[in-house]
Fold each of these.
Amino acid sequence: MSGQDFKSDTETENPTVITDRSLIQQEEHARLMNRMSLFRLMLLLCIQNQGARSAQLVSGRQLTEQLDEIYEQERIYAKRVYENLDWLREKGLVERRDSEDHQHDYRLTPKAKGFVKRHAELVVGLANGQEYLDIVR
């Protein structure tokens, strides 16, 4: 599938739509996974989830609230969310915009969308018994 042409999500009207598997290659996915915690992965998924539902940027407060719902047995503090958002920004996975009310709003970069899509394909493939190399080729 990697040799085919795909329409890049940077060309779509909705910046939250994930349409292009080729945005991130298997090697880049593996490199990012070496330092990706489950919490950071959930943070990416929450940004994508809320952005896809509202087609808008997502605030740090909204992310903290959603993570609080997901991690119902553990209190999620804003400091933890923002430290991990900063890490994701450093890796080029998240963009931050500062609004007039001093709130930070976030969205995934095309690289992050490619990472999320490749990771979802990997999870589904492995859960369905596929060989790793068959999934990532």
Note: The mean pLDDT is 82.
Amino acid sequence: MEVDRPEKRRLVLRPDHGHPSSLWGEPPRDKVVGVRPYVTAEDFNLSEALKRKLHSWTVYFQERFVSESSQFDDPPVWRPGSKVEEWNMCGHDIVTALEEELVDYSVEAKFDTYVYSVNECRRRNGLPPFVPGPGGR
């Protein structure tokens, strides 16, 4: 006999300028928190260590990220001296920690476009590159 397991909630880790936590999803709320356009780490009752790591990662993005590229093969732009690969690895560590602390959630990392070009992201996902111009994709 199969036991029906409730479907996991979806939580996305994706920074955005002005977003205080980089978390996108519906938290388990015991009480009404009021209407606001974002959720925070506190809404998910995360450990203090994970809240600090998430906050530092988000602040680093907001202070150092400049823009996504308008060219398919060019990487995104960060301020000179930014440690983008370290930031990326830290983000994946945060996803792993979120999965460990929030077992009822499926956590998705959605920040590759801040690290790699559009075509590199496509290649990493097994997709063909975009080719501009007539006959391109």
Note: The radius of gyration is 17 Å.
